[in-house]
Amino acid sequence: MAVEVTGYLNLEAMNWTERDNLLLLHTVNTHVKPSGQASWLNVKPIPGRTKRAMEQQWSSQMKPRCRWNGKSYVLRQPNLFDKATPIADVVNAKKTPQNASTSIKKKRVVVKKSFLWGAFTFERYE
Questions:
Q1: Looking at the domain assignment, is residue 44 inside a domain?
Q2: Cβ atoms of residues 13 and 6 within 8 Å
Q3: How many structural domains are present in the chain?
Q4: What is the pLDDT of residues 85-119, one digit of tens each?
Q5: Do the Cβ atoms of 121 and 113 come closer than 8 Å?
């Protein structure tokens, strides 16, 4: 459980280990319907976890990592080709115009000060 007898949070118990994830996968596979929907009514919680925590871990973390093969959920193997590597597009790359300067210029700001109820006004450019 996440809360010990002392009343303080045990952060190590809150993190899901790979062993917990595999136990969750096995539990879901034993209580899965033929349509692939998990039935949480008869599920016995994993020691140290609640049913609600198991449902949230399954729906947010584990189900996207698994594949339904018609009978049970199987962990997907990481594929090196899933993430596309960016390729430099030389033809359509934005080019800086030749007459543009490469440095950033500060914008000039007018600072106005008035004294003696507006009788004297000073302007300064920064």
A1: yes
A2: no
A3: 1
A4: 555 555 555 666 666 666 666 667 777 777 777 77
A5: yes
Please answer whether residues 29 and 72 qualify as being in contact, where contact means their C-beta atoms are separated by less than 8 angstroms.
Answer: yes
Give the other-Cβ count within 10 Å of 23's Cβ: 16
Distances (CA, A) of 31 to 42, 45, 109, 126: 8, 12, 69, 72
Which residue do the tokens 């010990």 mark?
A: 4
Q: Which two tokens stand for residue 86?
A: 């960016």
Judge whether 63 lies within some domain. Answer: yes
Predicted confidence (pLDDT) per residue in 15-72, tens digit:
888 899 999 999 999 989 888 888 888 888 888 889 999 999 999 989 998 988 888 8
Give the residue carrying structure tokens 């973390």. 61
DSSP of 89-114, one letter per residue? Answer: -SSS-----TTS-SSPPPPP-EEEEE
Q: How many CA atoms lie within 13 A of 104 on its CB side?
A: 1
- Tell me which residue range forms the domain holding 55: 11-75
